[in-house]
UniProtKB/TrEMBL annotation, chain A:
<feature type="domain" description="YdbS-like PH">
    <location>
        <begin position="411"/>
        <end position="486"/>
    </location>
</feature>
<feature type="transmembrane region" description="Helical">
    <location>
        <begin position="228"/>
        <end position="248"/>
    </location>
</feature>
<feature type="domain" description="YdbS-like PH">
    <location>
        <begin position="259"/>
        <end position="317"/>
    </location>
</feature>
<feature type="transmembrane region" description="Helical">
    <location>
        <begin position="388"/>
        <end position="409"/>
    </location>
</feature>
<feature type="transmembrane region" description="Helical">
    <location>
        <begin position="363"/>
        <end position="382"/>
    </location>
</feature>
<keyword id="KW-0812">Transmembrane</keyword>
<feature type="domain" description="YdbS-like PH">
    <location>
        <begin position="73"/>
        <end position="149"/>
    </location>
</feature>
<feature type="transmembrane region" description="Helical">
    <location>
        <begin position="12"/>
        <end position="41"/>
    </location>
</feature>
<dbReference type="InterPro" id="IPR014529">
    <property type="entry name" value="UCP026631"/>
</dbReference>
From TrEMBL, chain B:
<protein>
    <submittedName>
        <fullName>PH domain-containing protein</fullName>
    </submittedName>
</protein>
<keyword id="KW-0812">Transmembrane</keyword>
<keyword id="KW-1133">Transmembrane helix</keyword>
<dbReference type="Pfam" id="PF03703">
    <property type="entry name" value="bPH_2"/>
</dbReference>
<feature type="domain" description="YdbS-like PH">
    <location>
        <begin position="119"/>
        <end position="193"/>
    </location>
</feature>
<keyword id="KW-0472">Membrane</keyword>
<feature type="transmembrane region" description="Helical">
    <location>
        <begin position="63"/>
        <end position="85"/>
    </location>
</feature>
<feature type="transmembrane region" description="Helical">
    <location>
        <begin position="91"/>
        <end position="115"/>
    </location>
</feature>
<dbReference type="InterPro" id="IPR005182">
    <property type="entry name" value="YdbS-like_PH"/>
</dbReference>
Length: 499, 205
């Protein structure tokens, strides 16, 4: 039944039944466990019944999973050059994906899959009719075979960068050591980790309250505890602890995601693998990368570290966060040499020095008005009329000063550099980001101007690509128009495709 | 070895070696004399901002007016139900009425301005679309980046023989343009021409 060229429709690995069943069970348990436990506590029923319910659920899941397994087939239609998946127990779905539309093939392994010894294959597509297909359980050999078959598309490889012979090997050429990961973890993603931490603490408090409510014991202990502990002394004590937890979460997150990070070359594409518990493999082809970005903050500059991100086409629809994560590859903690190596590999050369375009100082007007002046006016009105906000005078002054400084830094950092081959946008306040695109990745150009800027000759330009938009604001409009004509010439005079 | 690469190598060589390398490297190139590499004069490139633009059909204003009236009637019905049912609101009748008229005026003015500013042009290699009420935006889509083209006919547009052309790119909703209020015959022709162009560029690649 199982053939290596995938011409015949074939099923997943038999272990797939178990994977699907466990997945379903987890979903079901996640939804019902909490109300169920509460119910059981309320009516004081035997734990045995709880186990019985879960066991029944498991059996139902296995039965469904069996039929799902039987009905799930996939194959490659060689004549139509399509990858075809038929699936669905009650509603049958027939998916046909043209091979040339396949953007990326990911081979992943979750913890459960690791134990059973199978892999999942996820196929990302680009284009207006974007769909994502995933095959839940497949042997390692078959998975890599399938990936090779799917990406072995003659059309795609024509316009690739010229590759020398020594490039065709599969040895890892970039590895990121635990020490580098530690450094990266300590210096990046503060905002994300803070949000995560807040969400986590909120969830815990919420759950504790729910449990207390269930036992009819909620007399506001938590609120009381919080109020009593929020004295000035405890806050000064609390802040370092929060910072410490923040750094720790950051480091742990970085390690879970990027442990054993490796990039190796496979013919024309890059294989990236990383992960502590679940190993994630991603294969990308350089010419499908739309925007190449790297960023660095103050600490990272001192340590000579860069974070690289390769953004791929997202098929022109709004993505969920998960999809974004899959389409955008983040390479944490590269050295300057490694950064240059990867950029060279993706763009076939390093951007040379070009002409730099900077924004007019009016860049600052609107943000200062909305973010500084309006809040300050509101504060002043409150200050004059009530006593509530009076103790925060220092905070308000600090806010204004820090706010203006930050806006000024963002204005100083906002610029584009244009060379013959590239457009490089620089921006950021703390993390300074460079986004690099080649003109032929541009899908649409939009230049615009407000009427009150006509006399000043100030205008803006947006370069829309399949992986997001590059904005340049408050530039000299005459120059922008010249650039637009130049980019249009570059896009329209060559028949280089964007993908 | 690619052509520009060889060329670069030659530039960095000394004169004597140059001749030797030149003979060796360029022997297979018969079209050598045809190759030129003049610097591009940026000012002599085609200027998008000087392209004469086509206006939407004058009948399109009627479609807009009908749509505004429908919107205003719906809002008016909502307000009258509210006023009838609540005595307290009745006291503010004149205020509400003047607000309503103000809204109607603003709508007509905004749509008139927006219509006057709209324009589109088809060039050899791209489509230009200009619009905007406050900011004046010029959007340009190179033909080789078009994913697909749609022709939509709304119910009122159809009454006046108009259509809307929607041009999609891989950049999604942000990179899309729609040319509204075009005479249906012209719209069909434009769509036809764009699609033909699409097939042509795709076949080329």
């Amino acid at each position: 039944m199982i053939s290596k060229d995938f011409i015949q429709p074939q099923r997943q690995s038999v272990a797939g039944i178990l994977i699907t069943a466990i997945h379903l069970l987890r979903l079901a348990v996640k939804v019902i466990i909490f109300p169920l436990v509460l119910l059981f506590i309320k009516i004081k029923a035997n734990v045995f019944y709880l186990m019985l319910i879960i066991a029944t659920l498991f059996i139902l899941s296995v039965i469904y999973a069996y039929f799902y397994f039987i009905k799930f087939t996939f194959h490659i239609n060689a004549s139509k050059q399509e990858f075809i998946v038929d699936k669905g127990v009650f509603n049958r779905t027939h998916l046909g994906i043209p091979l040339e539309k396949i953007q990326q093939v990911n081979i992943d392994q979750t913890l459960v899959q690791k134990i059973i010894g199978v892999y999942s294959v996820k196929i990302d597509t680009a284009g207006a009719e974007s769909k994502e297909v995933s095959i839940g359980a497949i042997d390692e050999e078959l998975a890599y075979n399938l990936k090779q078959q799917l990406l072995q598309n003659p059309i795609l490889h024509q316009e690739n960068i010229p590759v020398q012979n020594e490039d065709i090997n599969t040895s890892a050429f970039i590895k990121i050591s635990p020490l580098t990961l530690l450094k990266t973890g300590l210096t990046s993603n503060y905002g994300q980790s803070l949000l995560l931490l807040c969400g986590f603490i909120y969830a815990i408090v919420h759950y504790i309250k729910e449990v207390l409510k269930a036992f009819n014991n909620d007399k506001g202990q938590i609120e009381h505890f919080m109020n009593s502990s929020l004295t000035l002394f405890s806050i000064s004590f609390l802040i370092p602890i929060v910072l410490l937890i923040l750094l720790a979460t950051n480091v742990i997150r970085t390690f879970i995601k990027y442990f054993d990070f490796e990039i190796s070359r496979h013919n024309h594409s890059l294989l990236i693998s990383s992960g502590l518990f679940a190993k994630k493999n991603t294969l990308i082809t350089p010419n499908k990368v739309q925007i190449t970005t790297y960023n660095q903050n103050y600490f990272q500059r001192k340590m000579k570290l860069f974070n690289l991100e390769l953004k791929q086409a997202h098929g022109g629809h709004d993505q969920s966060d998960k999809e974004k994560r899959n389409a955008n590859l983040i390479l944490p903690g590269c050295s300057p040499v490694e950064k240059d190596d990867i950029i060279k590999l993706i763009l076939s050369q390093l951007p040379a020095n070009g002409k730099v375009y900077k924004p007019n100082f009016r860049f600052l007007n609107l943000p200062i008005f909305f973010k500084i002046i309006i809040p300050l006016v509101v504060y002043t009105i409150l200050y004059l009329n009530t006593d509530v906000v009076k103790p925060f005078l220092l905070a308000a002054i600090l806010y204004a000063l820090i706010g203006i400084t930050m806006l000024y830094i963002s204005y100083k950092n906002h610029q584009i550099t244009v060379t013959d081959e590239f457009i490089i946008k620089q921006s950021g306040i703390w993390d300074i980001t460079h986004e690099i695109i080649t003109p032929h990745k541009i899908q649409t150009i939009a230049a615009f101007q407000y009427p009150w800027h006509k006399g000043l000759d100030i205008g803006h330009v947006n370069l829309h690509t399949a992986a997001g938009t590059i904005h340049f604001k408050f530039g000299n409009y005459t120059q922008i128009k010249k650039l637009v004509n130049w980019w249009l010439f570059q896009v329209e005079s060559s028949n280089q495709n964007w993908m | 070895m690619s052509f520009p690469f060889v060329f670069h190598e030659i530039l960095s060589c000394k004169k004597i070696i140059l001749v030797a390398v030149f003979k060796r490297a360029y022997a297979p190139f018969h079209k050598m004399q045809d190759f030129t590499n003049q610097p591009i004069d940026l000012d002599s490139l085609p200027q998008y901002q000087e392209t004469p633009l086509n206006k939407p059909s004058s009948k399109y204003w009627k479609v807009i007016v009908i749509n505004i009236f429908i919107f205003l009637i719906l809002i008016g019905l909502g307000i009258s139900v509210l006023v009838m049912s609540d005595q307290d609101i009745k006291a503010y009748l004149y205020l509400i009425l003047s607000g309503y008229i103000f809204l109607a005026l603003i709508l007509f003015i905004i749509f008139r301005i927006s219509l006057n500013k709209r324009g589109f042009a088809l060039r050899d290699k791209d489509v230009i679309y200009k619009d905007g009420v406050i900011a004046e935006t010029t959007t340009i889509v190179p033909l080789s980046r078009i994913q697909h083209v749609e022709l939509n006919e709304g119910i009122f547009s159809r009454m006046f023989g108009l259509g809307t052309i929607e041009i999609y790119t891989a950049a999604g909703s942000e990179g899309k343009i729609s040319l509204a209020g075009i005479e249906i015959e012209l719209a069909k022709n434009i769509k036809e021409a764009l699609i033909k162009r699409l097939d042509y560029t795709q076949a080329e690649q």
